[in-house]
Design brief:
Shape: globular
Distance between the termini: 46 Å
GO molecular function: isocitrate dehydrogenase (NADP+) activity; magnesium ion binding; NAD binding
Structural class: alpha/beta
Helix content: 25-40%
Number of domains: 4
Family: Belongs to the isocitrate and isopropylmalate dehydrogenases family.
Low-confidence stretches: 1-47
CATH class of the largest domain: Alpha Beta
Number of strands: 21
Radius of gyration: 24 Å
Strand order of the largest sheet: 7-6-8-19-18-9-10-17-13-16-15-14
GO biological process, one term: glyoxylate cycle
Mean pLDDT: 90
Organism: Ralstonia solanacearum (strain Po82)
Subunit structure: Homodimer.
Length: 464
């Protein structure tokens, strides 16, 4: 593997060894194929080597044993530009974030952005079949906090979804999707301001685990036969032509997600946590999710049953206010968020349900063009635009950069840089009310002035 070394940071001993090995080292250059013995020496001296990633000046964010962050004043933040319109929105996001940080901290803090690669750009940098390089995964682990644009789904075999692959490889078991309304955004509902929820979607299990077999394949036939012969399953209506999938849902996977959701409700003074499931039909998977969630609330947070249960409640240890833990059947919940959205605040749900619920709620407040998101493990956080790549608009400076900008706002808040995050929220509100907006809003707002993707970024900067 071709390793890249920052030559200017190499000790003379190692640089000399590289030259003797016939690999020239130029000061300041990113170069050289490194023999194992040299590579080991470089690692011992703290030199970081990557094949195509250039590490800027700055410091790493680190994680404490309690999973809190140590954030320096000049953190290095990896970013993936993304495919399609990622080319347009990511530079705008960086420009807006840099402006907010500069204004909030008067130049005392600054992000050092480090580009890493995945998706179509990766295939151009690393080779035609390299959609998700190993060093990209390693950087995401090492640098803790990152942000990415939308990624395309590769055509053909191998990786089925780059987004799913990133979540699984890094065990980003929480998909966090806050949904709120910005005044002035066109919405299909009468009172969009009543929609204010945060969705905790389980990211690692459910049918998104990707355990499925094509209809009429040998594996599908074999699995169906085992189910019929060894488990007495008779409910597969057309076994000869059925594709088949497996839906894993575990106690551990449920507990770690629900724990995060309840802790979020405590930290952010939210009145309820709603467990959304289809356990009335899928009793041992989604029903298990519901039961394990209630059990965790009682065991770890001291929740007490309300009128015999299953709903329960406990006092927020930080505020003394009551937090209710309740559940809702998924299809009924999709109705209730339209009819009575104010009754819900924090949502904990499974992977597939979370996918549906996130986009349905985003539509109520103006669409996924301004819907932010994050994928979290206990230590790693990757923030992302939640919409697709929209390739027909790529490179046209046309689309709404709001989703990635608001995802960056979440990132700043996660880092503890709340002053810069607050500036972005205030500017977003002011910019939308000014009606200087991208095409998706301009076509629905009377008296609007349509601006480009980069133009909206500049409007936001001007409104800080």
């Amino acid at each position: 593997m071709r390793c890249i070394v920052r030559a200017s940071s190499l000790p003379a001993r190692i640089a000399s060894s590289l030259q003797r090995a016939g690999r020239p080292v130029r000061p300041g250059a990113l170069c050289c194929q490194t023999p194992p013995s040299i590579r080991a020496s470089a690692v011992c001296t703290g030199v970081v080597m990557y094949q195509h990633i250039k590490v800027p000046a700055g410091e790493k964010i680190t994680v404490n044993q309690d999973f809190s962050l140590n954030v320096p004043d000049n953190p290095i933040i990896p970013y993936i530009e993304g495919d399609g319109t990622g080319f347009d929105i990511t530079p705008v996001m960086i420009k807006v974030v840099d402006a907010a940080v500069a204004k909030a901290y008067a130049g005392k803090r600054k992000i050092s952005w480090m580009e890493i690669y995945a998706g179509e750009k990766s295939t151009k940098v690393y080779g035609p079949d390299v959609w998700l390089p190993e060093e990209t995964l390693q950087v995401l682990k090492d640098y803790v906090v990152s942000i990415k644009g939308p990624l395309t789904t590769p055509v053909g075999g191998g990786i089925r979804s780059l987004n799913v692959a990133l979540r699984q490889e890094l065990d980003l078991y929480v998909c966090l999707r806050p949904v709120r309304y910005f005044k002035g955004v066109p919405s299909p509902v009468k009172e969009p301001e009543k929609t204010d929820m945060v969705i905790f979607r389980e990211n690692s299990e459910d049918i998104y685990a990707g355990i499925e077999f094509e209809a009429e394949s040998e594996k599908a036939k074999k699995l169906i036969k085992i189910l019929q012969d060894e488990f007495g399953v008779k409910k597969i209506r057309f076994p000869e032509t059925s594709g088949i999938g497996v839906k894993p849902v575990s106690r551990e996977g449920t507990e770690r997600l629900v724990r995060k959701a309840i802790q979020y409700a405590i930290d952010n003074d939210k009145p309820s946590v709603t467990i959304v499931h289809k356990g009335n039909i899928m009793k041992f998977t989604e029903g298990g999710f519901r039961d394990w969630a209630y059990a965790l609330a009682q065991k770890e947070f001291g929740a007490e049953l309300i009128d015999g249960g299953p709903w329960c409640k406990f006092k927020n240890p930080k505020t003394g206010k009551e937090i209710v833990v309740k559940d809702a059947i998924a299809d009924a919940f999709l109705q209730q968020i339209l009819l009575r959205p104010a009754e819900y605040s924090v949502i904990a749900t499974l992977n597939l349900n979370g996918d549906y619920v996130s986009d349905a709620l985003a539509a109520q407040v103006g669409g996924i063009g301004i819907a932010p998101g994050a994928n979290l493990s206990d230590s790693v956080a990757m923030f992302e635009a939640t919409h697709g790549t929209a390739p027909k608009y790529a490179g046209k400076d046309y689309v709404n950069p709001g989703s990635e900008i608001l995802s960056a706002e979440m990132m700043l808040r996660h880092m503890g840089w709340t002053e810069a995050a607050d500036l972005i929220i205030a500017s977003m509100e002011k910019s939308i009310l000014s009606k200087k907006v991208t095409y998706d809003f301009a076509r629905l707002l009377e008296g609007a002035t349509q601006v480009s993707c980069s133009g909206f970024g500049q409007v936001m900067i001007d409104n800080m």
